[in-house]
Specification:
About 30% of the residues lie in helices and about 30% in strands. With about 290 residues, the protein is of the alpha+beta class. The chain folds into two domains: about 120 residues, Aminotransferase class 4, branched-chain amino acid transferase, N-terminal domain (D-amino Acid Aminotransferase, Chain A, domain 1, 2-Layer Sandwich); about 160 residues, D-amino Acid Aminotransferase, Chain A, domain 2 (Alpha-Beta Barrel), CATH 3.20.10.10. Helix 6 packs across helix 8. It is globular. Bound molecules: 4'-deoxy-4'-aminopyridoxal-5'-phosphate (PMP). 4'-deoxy-4'-aminopyridoxal-5'-phosphate binds next to helix 6 and strand 13.
């Protein structure tokens, strides 16, 4: 059975799913997106993802979007129709397809909503066992990184640079040599004094949903949790490092720019937090 996608009200085989070439997502990257994990057929932390989506829409003044309740129904329907047990739901809302290519907002144009699912082993992850290697790259993005916009060219180039260097993720770095975040993940370090550090939320980074839960779980374990900028040098010198995202939960980082982090093996606290997150996600899923 082919995978089913959702396009503006219709459930259709993904190979037949189409949007107009005049869609502003295609022409201007004028749209936003979300990605939520599915474990045991249930969406994880979806309220947080939908509230970030609503905020992204507000910040870009994309109006008349389907309600978040409707979007949650579409997501659940796609999971059911595709028989998805573990993986991701991707959804994107653009300012729609007007009759012409004009920069200004079109009048009376309905937003485009598309969604689809992807199968992925999230819990049984090889990268979680082996750890991932990271390179640092300059952060080339625009000034509103708190909006989850589909304008991802800087992240595409960052990720490709990582892959070409034999790494799995790129940590982007601001002009003062402080890490902002990963190309598609939040960056964390654990200092040698056991303080868990990640950059404070601002327009310079995306407020990660996974990060927020991880910070809560870490604090519950008695770890000191600090929100502040950390430099590339501080990261090289960290006891542990890891990244968080809905699609990977928590992955230990074992090297940055070829320098081993800590022992060069997945760190103990990174592993513990991954286990706690999975427990939290599975319990949250069961009770929703
Ligand atoms: N930062 C960036 C740039 C991302 O693309 C992502 C993944 N969406 C994240 C952080 C992590 O966010 P989340 O935990 O909500 O997936």
């Amino acid at each position: 059975m082919p995978d089913i996608a959702y396009v503006n009200g219709a459930y259709i085989p993904i190979a037949e799913a189409r949007v107009s070439i005049l869609d502003r997502g295609f022409l201007f990257a004028d749209g936003v997106y979300e990605v939520a994990a599915v474990i045991d057929g249930r969406l994880i932390d979806n309220e947080a993802h939908l509230s970030r989506l609503a905020r992204s829409l507000r910040e870009l003044r994309i109006e008349n979007s389907p309600s978040m309740t409707h979007i949650a129904e579409v997501e659940a329907e796609l999971v059911a129709r595709n028989g998805l047990s573990e993986g991701l739901v991707y959804l994107q809302i653009t300012r729609g397809a007007a009759s012409d290519r004009d920069f200004g907002f079109p009048q009376d144009t309905a937003p485009t909503l598309v969604a689809f699912t992807q199968r992925k082993n999230i819990i049984a992850s090889i990268a979680a066992d082996t750890g991932v290697n990271v390179i640092t790259v300059p952060d080339l993005r625009w000034a509103r990184r708190d909006i989850k916009s589909v304008a991802l060219l800087a992240q595409v180039l960052a990720k490709q640079a990582a892959l070409e260097a034999g790494c799995q993720e790129a940590w982007m770095v601001d002009r003062d040599s402080f890490v902002t975040e990963g190309s598609s993940s939040t960056a964390f370090i654990l200092t040698k004094t056991d303080v868990l550090v990640t950059r404070a939320n601002s327009a310079e980074i995306l407020p990660g949903c996974t990060r927020k839960v991880v910070q809560t779980l870490a604090a519950r374990e008695g770890l000191m949790v600090e929100e502040r900028s950390f430099s590339v040098d501080e990261a090289y010198d960290a006891k542990e490092a890891f990244l968080t995202s809905a699609s990977n939960l928590i992955l230990p980082v074992i090297s940055i720019d070829g320098r081993a982090i800590g022992s060069g093996k997945p760190g103990e606290k990174s592993g513990l937090l991954r286990t706690l997150y999975i427990e939290w996600a599975t319990n949250a899923a069961q009770s929703s």
